[in-house]
From TrEMBL:
UniProt similarity note: Belongs to the class-II aminoacyl-tRNA synthetase family.
TM helices/strands, residue ranges: none
Reaction(s) catalysed by this chain's protein: tRNA(His) + L-histidine + ATP = L-histidyl-tRNA(His) + AMP + diphosphate + H(+)
Aminoacyl-transfer RNA synthetases class-II family profile domain location: 1-352
InterPro entries registered for this protein in UniProt: aa-tRNA-synth_II, aa-tRNA-synth_II/BPL/LPL, Anticodon-bd, Anticodon-bd_dom_sf, His-tRNA-ligase, HisRS-like_core, HisRS/HisZ, HisRS_anticodon
UniProt EC number: 6.1.1.21
Pfam family of the protein (one): HGTP_anticodon
The organism's taxonomic lineage, starting at the top: Bacteria, Pseudomonadati, Pseudomonadota, Gammaproteobacteria, Chromatiales
The protein, known as: Histidine--tRNA ligase
Organism field: Thioalkalicoccus limnaeus
Amino acid sequence: MSKNIQAIRGMHDLLPTHSPLWQRLEDGAREVLEGYGYQEIRTPLVEVTELFKRSIGEVTDIVEKEMYSFTDRNGDSLSLRPEGTASCVRAAIEHGLLAQPQRLWYRGPMFRHERPQRGRYRQFHQIGVEVFGLDGPDIDLEVILLTRRLWRALGIDGLRLEINTLGDAPERAAYRDALTAYLGRHLDQLDEDSRKRLHTNPLRILDSKDPRTQAVVADAPRLIDHLGGTSRDHFAALCAGLDEAGLDYEQNPRLVRGLDYYNRTVFEWTTDDLGAQGTVCAGGRYDGLVEQLGGRATPAVGFALGVERAVALLEQRDDPAAPSLDAYLVAVGDAAQARAIQIAEDLRDALPGMRLMCHCGGGSFKSQFKKADRSGAQLALVLGEAELAQGLIGVKPLRGTGEQETIAIRDLPKRLKRLD
Ligand code: ATP
Ligand code: MG
């Protein structure tokens, strides 16, 4: 016997039992984003590989080992997008969006060939924001406050905000030298990954989970001590704004982020409720990226929220009840069945927004009522041959008490309006 084909490891179906939670998250996010004047952008899932190499960085985990890359029929190297920022920048340059400030948002699947585990998948989803053309700490503040409003709107509590500043490129380069020199003196205490990163991506070592490496890192030179006045002022203004907004945060000097393009502000929202994969949302400023990808120098800031992780939090806090049906139309007998779909269409015309399911496929009253009951509908509408002949239809409450009544079909909209 042939084996059934299954979904690819780390790539999941979203089943109807769970889609209400996703919809709540997506609808809630969209409302909040629109409330700040952000506009949606959609870009292709596939881009030339070069785009990600040039933006995310050649020596990052993503580009070194996580991309789904393949050769197109014409020989081009293409990749499934591992994140959204590079594509947004590409699109903004390509369509000349950068002449004025832009507040954009996107959502959709991302692809990374990581080891699948709880909260870490090979196809996962992000909702993200990218703001172009604004360089002050005010927009960094807005973006972070927007995320707070999102947690509030969704009823997600218990998230912690960590922030840090990475300074600007020359400051970071000076710091990198100091850090490399320090870590080089403690080479024997570093884990293997960190040793490899010493000359390619030493800042990432700050982020190591290895206890011995962490002990070395604790006494490492601090980036904040290598910042110039402008970077310090920017960060101080952001902190002051967060204080004024009453938003608690932790300043974490080891927060560096895995992508190369960040500068100045970086932040993460984390939780203890999801085990090891506790970062739900992460972002920061990336002032150099637009120019690096061939556009005119444009400051930028953004974040991406991991939808699976946010949905997992929603699920812990709430049961994912599907929006239930208002009515289920039962029809028995050939003539009634033939009319049922039409009657349902007329009802939908008369009562926009009504959730009505029309029984299809025939069967006895008994079997159709069973389905009506299981559908979760409030009411069954009952169409039999005899009723139809007189232009009548039964209305039977399925929840609680209440008697079945028989009314004229043309009075249905009036009768059902009383439902809400
Ligand atoms: P992590 O440290 O968890 O690997 P990251 O730094 O690689 O995260 P980003 O690229 O900044 O993550 O992505 C932003 C958010 O997207 C993360 O905070 C997380 O919520 C989510 N995310 C990233 N990778 C995955 C994945 N493989 N599966 C599910 N969610 C993910
Ligand atoms: Mg990662």
